[in-house]
Automatic annotation (TrEMBL):
This protein's GO CC annotations: plasma membrane
Membrane topology: Multi-pass membrane protein
Location of this chain's protein in the cell: Cell inner membrane
NCBIfam families: mfs
Pfam families on file: MFS_1_like
Keyword set, alphabetical order: Cell inner membrane, Cell membrane, Membrane, Transmembrane, Transmembrane helix, Transport
Name of this chain's protein: PPP family 3-phenylpropionic acid transporter
Gene Ontology molecular function: any one: lactose:proton symporter activity
Main location: membrane
Major facilitator superfamily associated domain: residues covered: 1-336
PANTHER family the record matches: 3-PHENYLPROPIONIC ACID TRANSPORTER-RELATED, BLL5896 PROTEIN
Residues annotated as transmembrane: 12-37, 49-66, 72-91, 111-131, 137-156, 168-189, 209-232, 239-258, 304-322, 334-354
InterPro entries: HcaT-like, MFS_assoc_dom, MFS_trans_sf
Length: 364
């Protein structure tokens, strides 16, 4: 993700084309997780679906090497991400089921994804100082192969007995005012991240940062995220869910404002990247609790899929496209100001309507 927009820029695509291609990564999350989540809930064979998604996604990614042009690459990324976006939501459900009553240890498991991100970003950033950005797809192949192999290290599920249907239907859950506020908040959160995931690397390059420095700054944000995951269980005991959400949204708004105006000041930029602990780490950890509490055991897979689709998917796609228009018409800084505005709206919604999630498996 940190280098893909730079790769696309190197291939000669315009800012709007880059925004569209990056939005595709998020757009398939609207449909794919719901399809795979439904299949996982229906069959109980989530590990097998994860394996299928990882293998199929890796296979279709190879279409990038054909250099198919804008529309061809758009098709490749649509198909590739449809399978790829099956992996993480299913893994979330598998992990939480395995943890059982120890679900507060989720952050300690999830942080290893962050460790992997830091290692790959730093390594690839160093390599891109030596080789051309056009070689990026070749650097990604070992990563995809490793993920596909690792899925076979997870024991297959023997199948589980489907729990009795709760009194409340899925429709009753998703139309609850507190659930609507929760999804609206996360939708706007991902809209605000549109500029970050699409144009942060280009924004840094325009301000004189090299590819290694760009990779290290991305890694710094994820390092802060790891720190947050390690102490999240303590924060949850000290602060209410509402306090954590409102504080994290305010810090995220501050983060986008600093990146918009003060990128050239390295100490300020470092501080802004440390705020990734709030804008991703805290809000994602809290959101997992919301999904588990509101959707219960019976609808957990579909709840996780809706969370991924409506927020990371729809919100991420809208954010990428909107940032593309702002960058093309104004500047990269304007796109980050747009993200700060989205956070201001999210703060108002949460202040008025957000409620704490019910205890897991008690939601009817």
């Amino acid at each position: 993700m940190p280098y893909w927009s730079l790769y696309l820029e190197g291939q000669g695509f315009s800012y709007l084309q880059i925004a569209t291609l990056m939005a595709t990564i998020q757009l398939t999350k609207v449909v794919a997780p719901n399809v795979w989540g439904w299949l996982g809930d229906r069959s109980g064979q989530r590990v097998r679906l994860v394996r299928f998604g990882a293998l199929s996604g890796s296979l279709f990614f190879a279409g990038v090497f054909l250099e198919p042009g804008f529309y061809g690459l758009l098709l490749v990324m649509l198909v590739f991400t449809f399978f790829w976006n099956a992996v993480l939501p299913l893994y979330e459900v598998i992990t939480l089921r395995e943890l059982g009553a120890q679900r507060d240890r989720y952050g300690r498991v999830r942080l290893w994804g962050s460790v992997g991100f830091i290692g790959s970003v730093a390594m690839i950033g160093g390599l891109l100082e030596i080789i051309e950005i056009s070689q990026l797809p070749w650097l990604l192949l070992p990563v995809f192969a490793g993920i596909a192999v690792s899925t076979f290290l997870v024991p297959s599920e023997r199948g589980e007995r489907k729990p009795p249907a709760p009194k409340g239907s899925l429709k009753a859950i998703v139309t609850h005012p507190a659930v609507i506020a929760f999804f609206a908040m996360n939708f706007l959160l991902q809209v605000s991240h549109g500029a970050y995931y699409t144009f942060f690397s280009i924004h840094l390059e325009q301000n004189g940062y090299g590819k290694l420095a760009i990779g290290l700054l991305w890694s710094l944000g994820v390092l802060a995220e790891i720190g947050l995951f390690l102490v999240m269980h303590r924060l949850s005991r000290r602060f209410t869910v509402r306090q954590i959400v409102l504080g994290a949204l305010a810090l995220t708004m501050l983060r986008w404002s600093l990146i918009a105006e003060l990128t050239w000041l390295l100490p300020v930029l470092i501080f802004a990247q440390l705020l990734h602990a709030a804008s991703y780490g805290a809000l994602h950890a809290v959101s997992v609790q919301y999904i588990q509490g509101f959707f219960g055991h019976h609808h957990h897979g579909q709840g996780q899929a809706l969370y991924s689709g409506l927020t990371f998917g729809a919100g991420g796609a809208v954010g990428a496209w909107m940032s593309g228009f702002l960058v093309d018409g104004v500047s990269t800084s304007a796109a980050f100001w747009g993200g700060a505005a989205a956070m201001a709206i999210a703060l108002v919604i949460c202040w008025k309507a957000l409620e704490p999630p019910p205890a897991p498996d008690t939601q009817a």
